Structure prediction request, 208 residues.
Amino acid sequence: MTPPRKWIIGNGTALDWAADAWSSLLGTAAVEKIAIPQSASHEFDLGVLDALSPSEGTAFAAFDERFGNFKRMELMALLMGHGFTLEPFISPRALLAGDVQAGRNAFVGDGAIVGHASRIGYNSVLLPGAQVGNGVHIGPSCWLEPGVIVGQGARIGAHCTLRTGALVAAGVQIGRNCELGWPQRYDRDVAAKTTFDPRYDAPIYTYG
Prediction:
């Protein structure tokens, strides 16, 4: 009987490191990397999926944080629409409390730390070395870079990007669609759609 396949499907450097991670976990014989072409308008060309049968394996959507993490979620939704199951990746070299919950297509990289009673939303990415305290809720389709620290009881809204050097203090709530790009301690709640861009001296607020 042929063992189940793991298809890593996506684009760019995220496709490469996700495939490497899954290969380290399952073995290279079980993992196949599949690049999804994109049109000039960034639409995914799913024709390469026609040769795959969801009954023969599972998939993982691999895409980076561009477009506010929405393209990665779009790819995840398209794969689910084709009938694929998308399991989370949890590195054996990450340190997770036993009661941590990770949603579909989540990624927790080497050396990441996640404390007791924390939840990682579907399609969220914790890159190697990210640290999450106890009782933290990471919303769907977030992106946490290496060196990010999220304090106990904090809440990170959906589609947020936390850049290297961001430290979210305990209990702080970060609204949806935020980007914490300044390498600093965030010790107050942040309204939805706020961007801390290192090219500017003041936060950018998007309304509507």
